[in-house]
Design brief:
The protein has 106 residues and is mostly helical. It contains three helices and no strands. It has two domains: 1-29; 31-83. It is elongated, with a radius of gyration of 36 Å.
């Protein structure tokens, strides 16, 4: 059968079909490369979601602190608004600036 013309044509058609199916498997829509890209996108989105979940958890803890007690409100007023208590002295410590250097020209 392989020696006849029909056999050779059949093998050629089979090879073309096989190659085209392999091309679709690897390169087509929903193929292996597309699957790898989607898995990478899922991984990236999962990491982003984890960051947002942690941020939401921190914000929820801050909301609970503000609702439950005055210590968080006082800390917020001190740090963000610069408020101080009555009969309290506020000291601001800054880094020492080096004296300006002058360049003398000859």
């Amino acid at each position: 059968m392989l020696n006849s013309m029909f056999g050779r044509v059949l093998i050629l058609i089979s090879a073309v079909i096989f190659c085209s199916l392999q091309g679709l498997l690897w390169l087509g829509d929903g193929g292996m490369l597309d699957l790898q890209e989607k898995q990478q996108e899922i991984t990236n989105q999962q990491a982003e979601n984890d960051k947002l979940i942690e941020r939401n958890r921190i914000l929820q803890a801050e909301i609970d602190d503000l609702k439950s007690g005055t210590e968080a409100i006082e800390e917020h007023a001190r740090l963000d608004l610069g408020m101080i208590k009555q009969n309290e002295t506020f000291f601001r410590v800054t880094a020492r600036q080096p004296p300006p250097t002058t360049v003398s020209q000859p």
